[in-house]
Amino acid sequence: MAVGGPARWFVNVDSAARLCEALDLAHSRKWSVLVLGGGSNLVIDDTGFDGLVLHINLLGLQTNMEGGATAVRVAAGEPFDRVIQRLVGMGLGGVECLSGIPGAAGAAPIQNIGAYGQEICEVVQSVEAVSLETGMTKCFDREACDFSYRNSLFKRDPHWVVTSMTLFLEPSEYGNVSYRDVQRFFSASGTPTTLSAVRDAVLSIRRSKSMVLDPNDPNSRGCGSFFTNPIVEPDVINRLRADTPDVPAYPTQNGRFKLSAGWLIEHAGLKRGTRFGRVGLSPKHALAIINLGGACAKDVVHAASVVRRQVFDQFGVVLVPEPVLVGVALDPM
Ligand code: EPU
User: Fold this and answer.
1) Residue whose CA is closest, atom 33 of ligand 1?
2) Closest ligand 1 atom to the C-alpha of 260?
3) Is the pTM of the predicted complex or chain greater than 0.85?
4) How far apart are CA 307 and CA 301, in angstroms?
5) How do residues 91-143 score in pLDDT, each as one tens digit?
6) Which of 26, 111, 116, 307 could lock onto 179 through a cystine, CB 3.0 to 4.6 A?
């Protein structure tokens, strides 16, 4: 978002030994610790972080054939999209729709990233993490990660530093075209839906919504979706439909429904491109809050608070911020 202040202390974690050393130091000095991946999904207070920032820069990607499939161990500091590009290039399916997502690979299992019909949890075999408290390494199988929509054990219990994830991927000639936007792209272009064509299609769709970080696209100066899509009980849908029959709602697990946060924002009267001083809603996507130039963290949380309040007043639904907020908070509801 290009906001926020400095770190009091900062370490580039490029090895397991470096991580242990840094954690020991933080313990002995009683410093708070902030684990930083790519920094693309983060809003840090303008006063900065008064503690030790661990920048996870562990690199490496190893593959291991297991029957017809491939287990791929990805170190947490690898740029996520570089990993996706390599896996697509290797002809491995299951992650091609996750193309164009910024940030580091270690963040992927923490918030169970998902886009265009795929979620990382579908292909995670295990995640390795180090306890911030004890420094011990633990391997979590997929079940133990307790994944759900944009959530996991690691997000709920942030005392783990993810150091690597292992994906289990099958070779595939064709990519996933289950998402409506991707289907539309291919029915318009008529090209075969190979893995690399699906990656290119997703990149192109994301670019059209300014959801690919690009220094030449000022509308991409944000952290993607600023709120998660609310998951609500059927009685909420019934109440909403009584007033607004066309409210989009998608059935999800346990009889619940997923609402579209972007739609709720626009229908609460905050159109794409709405400005709040130096911050605005992206002209391409109402769910993205962008820095229009020279904004500070307070501007971002102010805008987010207004959006959340307006959606609540209109629909009685509370939006939950999606990025990690450090030292800042939205106004209480
Ligand atoms: N919509 C609007 N106005 C807008 C934008 C969207 O009304 O300005 C409505 C439309 O009805 C549209 C629907 O929202 O059909 C869905 O929009 P979109 O396909 O862009 O998806 P999204 O629900 O807004 C989610 C993820 C994105 C992911 C896309 C594609 C969340 C919070 N966001 O967005 O992930 O790329 O689906 O799969 O789940 C992210 O998490 O940062 C992120 C970008």
Assistant:
1) 225
2) 14
3) yes
4) 10
5) 999 999 999 999 999 999 999 999 999 999 999 999 999 999 999 999 999 99
6) 116
